[in-house]
Amino acid sequence: MRRLDSPIPVESFSQSFLKQNPTPSLFEAMTMVNGIQPQLTCNVCNTGDIRINGMEGPYTMVLIDGMPIVSSLSTVYGLSGIPNSIIKRIEVVKGPASTLYGSEAVGGLINIITKDPLSSSRFAVDINASTLGEYSVDLSTKITSKKATGLLAANGFFFNRQHDINRDNFTDVTLQNRFSLFTKWDIERRQDLPASVALRLLTERRWGGELQWQRKFLGGDSVYGESIDTRRVELIGNYGIRKDLLLEYSYNFHFQNSYYGTTWYKGQQHTAFAQLRWSKTMGKHQLLAGIPLRYLWYDDNTPATAKLNANAPSKQLMTALYLQDEWTARKNVTLLTGIRVEHSNIQGAVVAPRFAVKWQPAAHHTIRLSAGNGFRVVNLFTEDHAALSGFREIVIQNDLKPEQSWNANLNYSGDVHTAAGIFGWDASLFYTWFTNKIIPNYDSDPQKIIYDNLDGYAVSKGVNTQLTWTMTDGLRAMVGATYMDVYAVENDVKTLQQYAPRWSGNYSLNFPIRKAGITIDLTGKWTGSMRLPVVPNDFRPAMSPSYNLLNAQLTKKWPGGIETYLAVKNMFNFIPANPILHPDDPFDRRGGLYWNANGTPNAVTNPNGYSFDPSYNYAPMQGTKWLLGFRLNMQ
């Protein structure tokens, strides 16, 4: 449907948004979305997640063409493996969406819509290189036959030059070689009976660590390094059974073989999903119903999948039924009610209701109110690989219960048309209440990460606002800001959540000089102070400084569908200080310079008892860099 008609506030970002600030993956591209923060959680292996309104990455559900492809194990490195070249648009919903999508969609969801073969270019190329030694290549071509139209795309990202700006003898950013192949086919049938299938293959090798590390040191204790090898297969498809009945299905396999110093981690995951979705319009009612089925098989070499000293892979089976009614109560009022009943062998039965109302008091002004329930089953070892980096011990305090949340969102969107252009304003108030929330405790013991259900409650609340101005001469300007308060309360003590800045914002300016075929783009991100994981007597501040990342790009269009572009990233050259604690002793050697043989810190060389810890991160570790690129688009 059109975004204007949706009772739920949905933000949509097209290819033009991605081209304003070229990045090698979805993870980096989402930096410029208001209220969304891609967060690195390890400064050696560059694990990361995408946070919506301050909530941790596991609360964000990532879909590809509406299918739950990126989840659990793959959230850690899978997000950086999605190239922008296959994306038609990105849809973002902030707040629980568990009625339609179930577990994991607690904080919100990001739906990646891939390109349509029918509307794709006959041949397209996008190649760029940076002054830091990063190289990205995107190729795609359209294939036609009598009964089907296909898209074939390939992406490669290569970065093999070491950098150590802060001179701690550790790589600032992981070195990577990544290659993915994507194909999607639309099969010709009756117009009201769609059928499509897509396949993506991904292989990636990355490593970070001490500058003198080589692959021969893999798993050893002489030179510290973290190496991650990933293999991934994704299958997505749908098949129209009747005009009102659609079968949707997906499957993905994710394999990871990695070393974090001397710690070996090997994991693999199979995820199969299928659902029958029925939709029908009856008078003023648009009815939607679905029966989804999801099976997840996960195995690794940690105690997470061991039982009585024997291997015991985790097996999760989820079945559900959801019903939704979108009712046009009046010409300018739409009501949406929905309910989802879900059962899994891990959490039992859960009921998630959803409600929304959309009111259009005037032609270009819309007010939306939505509320819903979210729930999530936790898989600690598949979600927090930062715990494997460094030498903290994982402690699970008690049997962990599923988390639940209640959310409300009030949104206004409107625009004013003038002779000079269109002025738009979008604003949202959000509030989420959590029970049984699981928060990793890094503070009680510098040698441990302690997990337990919160004996209290947690809250995420705040406001998003965004202003846009599109002038008749083509100039487009946007500025957005988010203010939020994310905290937990236990025993009447309020604690701010880590990596959740109190305020943040983004801005962009797009200025076309049409006669010259030139476009100038400015994009930027403000990030306010946030709480960071520090240890007792840490010399680093517990709150990060605020900072601004500014990017600029000049694009020139040439005849024949050719474009060249020159970009500069992080123009103010902002670099975080001291991201790794105790980098000169990454193995925490007992009987060495900093630790006594009995495991106590040396009173002279290590009076504060510092251990190696790479989890202190609040900004990218790359300074100013230039990017030169070339595009060819043959229709």
Describe the fold and architecture:
The protein has 635 residues and is mainly beta. The protein has one domain (3-338, 348-362, 379-403, 513-579, 614-634): Maltoporin, Chain A (Beta Barrel), CATH 2.40.170. The protein contains 4 helices and 34 strands. It has a 22-stranded antiparallel beta barrel. A hairpin with a 2-residue loop joins strand 15 (263-282) and strand 16. It starts with 10 loop residues before the first strand and ends with a strand. The model has no long low-confidence stretch (mean pLDDT 88).
Keywords:
635 residues, Maltoporin, Chain A, 22-stranded antiparallel β-barrel, five-stranded mixed β-sheet
Integer average pLDDT: 88
CATH architecture classification: Beta Barrel
Rg over CA atoms, rounded to whole Å, is 25 Å
Largest sheet: 22 strands, antiparallel, barrel
Number of domains: 1
Strand content: over 45%
Oligomer: single chain
Model regions low in confidence, pLDDT < 50 over at least 5 residues: none
Number of helices: 4
Secondary structure category? mainly beta
CATH class: Mainly Beta
Tell how many strands the DSSP assignment holds.
34
Helix content: under 10%
CATH overall fold name: Maltoporin, Chain A
Calculate the terminal CA-CA distance, rounded to whole Å.
27 Å
**Tell me, what's the shape?**
globular
